[in-house]
Amino acid sequence: MPWFKDCWGRDSFIALPGITLTNGDFEDAKDIITNFASMQKKEKGDVNYGRIPNRVSSATNIIYNTTDGTPWMVREIGEYLRYSGDRHFAAAVYPVVKAYIEGVETHYLDEHGLMTHRHPDTWMDAKLQGQIPWSARGNRANDIQALWFTSLKVAAELAQLAGEETESARYAAMADKVQVSMTQLFWNADTQCMADRVDENGTPDYRIRPNQLMLMTVPFNRELVAPETGAHVVKNALSELMFPWGVCSLTQSDPWFHPYHNNCDAYHKDAAYHNGTIWGWNAGFSVSAMLQYGKTELAYQLTKNLADQILTLGHRGTMSENLDAFLDTSGERVTTGTYAQAWSVSEFHRNGYQDYLGVRPDMLQGRIEFYPHFPACWEHATAHVPFGQGDKLAVDYRKSGEVCQYLLTAKENGLTLEFGFDTNDGHRQYYSLPLKHQQTLTVSAVEKTLYLDGNLVAPNRVESNFVDILSDLTFASPVTDKAYPVLENHSLLEREIRAANYRVNED
Fold first, then answer.
1. DSSP string covering 398-467
2. pTM for the full model?
3. Chain center to CA of 288
4. Distances (CA, A) of 402 to 155, 286, 335, 358, 443
5. Looking at residue 109, what DSSP letter applies?
6. How far apart are CA 405 and CA 382, in angstroms?
7. How far apart are CA 197 and CA 210, in angstroms?
């Protein structure tokens, strides 16, 4: 609201889990998927074969010009199936996913197994006069590869459910190739930095944007990059991009950083749209990434500030699309873009259920992940997470000193509970337990112990959470006394783009 009146594919599926799945509105989620899938491009010779629309204005005005809308849908097909366990729908939607994979293989797959795309076909899609991208991210952006990898994983699972073992193995092998290529082409082991994209000449662009965080949060099983690599990615990105009020779309150390979005006489607002401006929805995957690495207290500071935005800034009960990167002269946050943006507030809601509470059902595999990350100040909390066909997991949390207790209640359903918690020595302990009608988990992170209904349980495995790499991670501070080129030279980025001087950042 107020001006996005069309139906947007990418935006809908980014917003879908926080608005429908965490609430148990599974039928709404399936209807959204089914509706977009019905508009999938079916002509095999078309370059958009297998894609769903980027934007739908009417039955006769449907636009397919995006790379990430369809893989976001495929990801949410996988997430819907995990929450609902709807195997009938899995069989019905599998041909849609197959057509998408085939379309990429036919038109967009490179020799490294990565998905190629045009510059403006990612979510950073603003174009100068509708033609030239303000933020060049072709022809292989890191978030696009995370979505492609996840799509292949979903396709492999659907193929296996359909009894197509050969296809399942082929999709899995394609995903493995993406994983190898990401390390080879995007990751610089010497500087421990991840490229935002690799251009058509094979040159990595190390411009610091938040997209790299999706390498850890888009794949369901966090397996695209090695855990230690992911820790460096989180540190490198958020130490540059995260202010207490949000996550910038470009680091302030970049020469093309734009401190303000709208109402700036020095440049057109679209020049700033993805070149510094804060996007509310980016905080969602940033919080998810921090909690993966045990940075609960820092993440919670950001979340509390977002809650304050929802309650007191702009339109109460929702979030704006954007904020200026810098505060105004009175020290206040400046809202820009739409005043109510679905994917912004949906990500805030999803963080609560999937990240802080840490519950993620996987009905296809007969399990529920429960990896809670409650802030230290929380002493009592309750929640209910719907899953399956009318079931729900009730969680009652109580903390006393250093001991945390979780009372879990669910139906007797033969599911496995995959439980995990962070210990005080920088490790994470994992347990596989039967999910009973009612059970009590008593945890001491100091003593590194779990008692199930009063009985000590040994962990299945113990892993490092690499928290030492992020030990000094904190919010970035805006540098307001710097002479930013885009403020000193009117329409500088526009002139550079028109002169073809917008270069890859190879540093």
1. EEETTEEEEEEE-----PEEEEEEE-TTSEEEEEEEE--SEEEEEEETTTTEEEETTEEE--SEEEE--T
2. 0.97
3. 8
4. 43, 27, 40, 19, 9
5. B
6. 12
7. 12
The type of residue at 356 is Y
Residue at 425: amino acid letter: D
Question: Measured between alpha carbons, how far is residue 15 from residues 317, 371, 399, 499 in Å?
Answer: 16, 22, 32, 37
| Contact residues for 205 (Cβ-Cβ < 8 A; gap 6+) | 137, 195, 196, 197, 198, 199, 504, 505, 506
Q: How confident is the model at residue 131 (pLDDT cuts 50, 70, 90)?
A: confident
Q: What does the alpha-carbon distance between residue 96 and residue 37 come to, in Å, rounded to a whole number?
A: 7
Mean pLDDT of the chain, nearest integer: 96
Tokens representing 277? 């401006």
Measured distance CA(232)–CA(303) in Å, rounded: 22
Rounded CA separation 391/413 (Å):
9
Structure tokens at 2: 């107020």
DSSP state of 213: G
Q: Is 22 helix (H, G, I), strand (E, B) or coil?
A: coil
Give the tens place of pLDDT for each residue, 232-242: 999 999 999 99
With 0-12 / 13-18 / 19 or more C-beta atoms within 10 angstroms meaning exposed / middle / buried, residue 271 is buried
In contact, 310 and 348? CB cutoff 8 Å: yes
**Residues forming beta bridges with residue 204, ordered by sequence position:** 198
SS3 of residue 367 by DSSP: strand
